[in-house]
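Protein data sheet
==================
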Amino acid sequence: MFSQLDSKIKQYLIVTGNYWAFTLTDGALRMLVVLHFHQLGFGALDIALLFLFYEFFGVVTNLAGGWLGARIGLNRTMQIGLTLQVLALIMLTVSADMLTVAWVMAAQALSGIAKDLNKMSAKSSVKHLVPEDSPGKLFQWVALLTGSKNTLKGVGFFLGAFLLGTVGFTNAMWLMAAALTIAAMVSAMLLKQGLGRASFKPKFSDIFSKSQNINLLSLARMFLFAARDIWFVVALPVFLSAKLQWDAWNVGAFMASWVIAYGVVQGSAPKLLSASKSKANTHPAFHWGLRLTFVTVLLAIAMSIQGEDLNYLDITLIIGLIFFGICFAINSSIHSFLIVSLAKADGVSLDVGFYYMANAMGRLIGTILSGYLYQYHGLLVCLWGSAFMLLLATVVVKFVPSPQLAIIKR
């Protein structure tokens, strides 16, 4: 069956399978680290620090990774990412007395580099597998890749908890390392060696995009993901646990379920948008940005009205998160399509890498602000901060050509 498929579809399936394998282990690793080190007696701040380098090196990796992909090809950067993730997993198989904060931070740094190399490679590869005159198919393939990644990341949260409860932390690391090694070997044999390699040898200075559209879209992406993480990553789970008295498993299950549903909506974005077709001169990223900002403001107002009354606050948050997740997922899919559509085909990873550097920077800013604002001002201020960031993202993306305009110009 596989051998009878079109060569470009084969390549897409290989890239997607590789990305899925990595994403499952990445989500599982995050849950394993949080739960295991909590069991070892690590405090909340220490656990948060374990992920600091993971986010920081995402910024660095996306800048350098795009340049590297253009020089040596996306197949190789994908394999490097898988190899680094295997090394990170093996680093965590040492005895418990060696699992210091510094050691785990180093392992997480490797994992952060691996994750963004893999993501940049997968997203950039799609550009070469879809004809330039097929923007609809490009949107579908990018949305499917992005949406399935987030769904599987949520599944990975459940997988991590399951592995910890059944085989233990160390054996879980070995099992995931073995699975990724197999994935790396398969994709190394089946993926085209020259995929994504630029026809020229880009200089390192080329990592900084010179396209105004790419720069503006990257700025909008930074604000978009800072707006999500400013309240979702730290503030929300702490609030659910501390204020609403949810236990750890309920918090984890809820967060995982939200991420899975979010991924499903991302993957369905092309169908959802085609079901409500806009006029050719409208800008879907701008209009969905306004919707997302409006939803966040409504949620903040609803929480302000309820004040200290916690009786129905969980229902308010759940309803708000459903609408926030739908609007954010569609926004994210449109943004992902825009970068792949606007990126230059020759050396596409340079533009995509720069863009996802901004994405990583947004996550880093959002994570830091989430902890700080929640600790000193509470969840409500985090929500207002999110609404402000979303407004900035929406205003900035208005100046980027819409998918329709980009297609006409190309």
